[in-house]
Amino acid sequence: GLPSVGIMLPMLICGDVFAVAWYRRHAQWDKLIRLLPWVVAGMAVGAGALWMAGKSTSQKDILGIIIGIMTLAMLALYLVQDKLDERLAPKSKAGAASTGIAAGFATMVSNAAGPVMSIYMAAHKLSKKEFIGTLAWYFFILNLSKLPVYGVLSAINPRNPIVTLDSLLFNLIMAPLIIAGAFLGKWLLPRIPQKAFDTVVLVLAALSAVKLVVG
After folding, report:
1. How far is CA 91 from CA 32, 74, 96, 140, 144, in A?
2. Is residue 89 a contact partner of residue 77, using CB atoms and an 8 Å limit?
3. pTM, whole model, 2 decimals?
């Protein structure tokens, strides 16, 4: 629902800060710049959908299902990309456009762009540090940009706000656990073989997508 979106965002930003601090030099900016215009378009669509969802509870579950289906479609394209025309592969121009729109929409309506972006990055065969560094910058920038949008949407729909004082207090309580998780991730990353890392990324993306569809 909408309150969970507001609860998750500050926690995600907290984790983003550590990821950017540790892996910022490994970011592949060319992979992100080509996505940016499409991400902005997707965020605009997502903001409109979120505003409508604030008025209708029946639309909240539909948004999650849409994101899940988009993610599964991208995963299917990734798995068969060697047999596809290059123009249809996830890392093609069309793939970048669809990824950007899907990621922008997903990140705005439910903070669920992780699976979409993971599949896009996996298609580029990035190393572990490049993968983490590129995603870290992407989510740090995008999550910060969502804060004012959520504030405006909360003001427009005061009966169903996205960010509240209670949600911010919960974020403060959870901060130590998020920081501990960040350090655990830093310790674990160099101990995971690259092939296992790539497999885990795809499996988690698939599971997340299925969960969104099933509910």
Report:
1. 11, 11, 6, 22, 26
2. yes
3. 0.73
